[in-house]
Here is the input.
Amino acid sequence: MQFAVIGNPIAHSLSPILHNHAFSSLGIAGFYGRYLLQENQSFYHLRSLHLKGANITVPFKEIAFNSCDEAFGIAYEIRAINTIVFEKGKMLGYNTDALGFYLCIENLALKNALIIGAGGSAKAVAHILKQKGISVTLINRSKERLRDFCDFECATFDTFTPKNTYDLIINTTPAGLTNNDLPLKKEFLSPLLKSASLAFDLIYGRETPFLTLAKSLDIATSDGKAMLINQAILAFEIFMESQNIAFDPKILRQSMQNIL
Ligand code: NDP
Here is the structure.
């Protein structure tokens, strides 16, 4: 029973560690690898890999939506898929990023949030926050991708307009992933952070300049590790359900939380 994470680049992905550790902790005979899909390669090529399921990462989440036979729940609504089940020759799509993010902040009393960035992960985060009654504002450096948010009923900006304060500020851009960039200019970001109760960066594995700045202002911070683990747990549950395999959810959670 084989699974994989599909993306480009893919070498950095921690998903194989999480899923393989879960398989061994639960005593399930499964293997989870990584697959580098070339950007010019057809997504349908994945059908020939004989996988039972896959996770999809940058830059294929929207392509996955267009390639799946069916999409369920939030995946259908935001047109982005991060989890695929291969069943009877069909590709079935799900999105676990949205709930994976929300589980990280569900115990906080938050009224409003500012999302920096307007890509696939911003869509997942914006959608779930709106669904849970948290008001959302988005800022992105370019206008084009903000058009995708027309249906989201949230304020969008491509230039900075400091009108409000926000309880939660989320970096959904890759700024700081492999460089020392901030997602917004420091003179704009600092006052926003000062009035926030949490700065959340989806990036994991390193302290980004965004989180360093928030810490220097004594603001609580969270990186993307807990979200990564949550979305992996939810995807694992979907994979096992598709194979009719029962397991102890406590062991699954502990195994993924303890390995990173
Ligand atoms: P996308 O490529 O879909 O979107 C990236 C967005 O960030 C775009 O709106 C882009 O703007 C903007 N952007 C890119 N570079 C910069 C920059 N230097 N400064 C300001 N804005 C920038 O990516 P995803 O949404 O799929 O992923 C974004 C990040 O979130 C990645 O680092 C990914 O690893 C992380 N992630 C983490 C997860 C987790 O579980 N922790 C889950 C999902 C994603 P423009 O439109 O102008 O190009």
About this structure: The mean pLDDT is 95. The chain has two domains: 2-96+226-259, 99-224. The longest strand covers residues 2-7. The radius of gyration is 18 Å.
